[in-house]
Structures are given as structure tokens and as C-alpha cells.
Amino acid sequence: MTKRQEQYEKTRQKIWETGKALIAKKGYDQVSIADITSAAGVSPGNFYHYFKSKDAFFAALEKQPYDDLASELNALPDGTIADRLTYYIQKRFRFLGENGPNFTRQWIRHASEPRYRELYKEETKIDSDIHMIDGLLTDAVAKGELSPETPVHDLSRMIVHTLFGTTFYYCVRDGHVDLEEWGRSLAALLETTIFRS
Q1: Which of 94, 96, 101, 116 would suit a FRET pair with 178, their CA atoms being 20 to 30 Å apart?
Q2: Can you give the pTM of this predicted structure?
Q3: CA distance 82 to 1
């Protein structure tokens, strides 16, 4: 990597971390691009060099963990469906819990408001979650961990809707919900009911 490329990445990361922290602290609507660039010590032009708008910035913030999670799931050693689903649920909730209820409220808005859909050229967050869970369950059917009659898509949707309901509840309770503990409980419930051998 050249010095210029290193500087490019360093500046982008500074904007990324600063903006994420400000949104987590103050809430999306209370943070402007000027706030982000001032706190990061960069010009507004630098911000627009990396991101088209504040909405595009937030979309990138929330998309990255999904991309990382998909890669991590593919790289996991062969575990059971319960192991893989537990990993997925825990990682997802850890990300939201670490970023707090202000960040998570905007995360839900981006998932639910039609005006944000154009930011997601491929899939919405809900579609992405369903797609990932579908993949995990389909793989489990192929490995014989689940019955061939398992209603994979319906089960995926139910799991994702439960995850989003919990995420919404976390916001309503202003973050006073232990998402990781709840994720462990959900994974254990799924393992002892649906995924038991």
C-alpha cells in the first residue's frame, strides 16, 4: 500500500469511527456532517470524497458488519446448526449493543422506511438476515441436521422477525435490555426445540 493509499484509508477510518461514536452518543438526527468532520478534524469535502450523504454514510456503517458476518460464517469450522446460529445471533446483537440504542434506532429506521431503500442496492437488512438464516438452515438440511421437510424459509422469517422484535424492544427500553443474554436464550431455545436431534 502506498503512503497515499494509507492516508486515504486512515482519513476514511477517522471519519467512520468519529461519525459512529457521535451517532451512538447523540442520535442520528442530532448529528450533522459538520459535527462529524469537525470532530474528526477533516474538511466536509473529505467526507463527501468517501460518502455521498449522511444517509449513505450510515448505510455503509451498518452494512459492514453484515459483510463481515457473512464472511465469518463461511469461514467457521463445521459446527452444528445450533452453533452457527448462536454465533450469528450473538454477533448481530453484540454489534447493536456496542453501538447503543441511538445507533440502533436509526438502524431500525433504515430497515423500515421506504426512503432509505435506495441506499441498499442489493438487499434490505431484513432480506439480508433472512437470506443468511436461509443459508444456514439449508446447509443444515443438506448435512442431515434438520429434516428435509423443515420449512426453511418460514423458519428463517420467524427467527428474523423475532430478532427484529427484540431489537425494537431494546430501543423502546432505551438500551436496558441485555441483547447478548437474550441472544443466548433464543439460541438455547431453538437448540432444545427445533434443532434437537
Answers
A1: 116
A2: 0.81
A3: 40
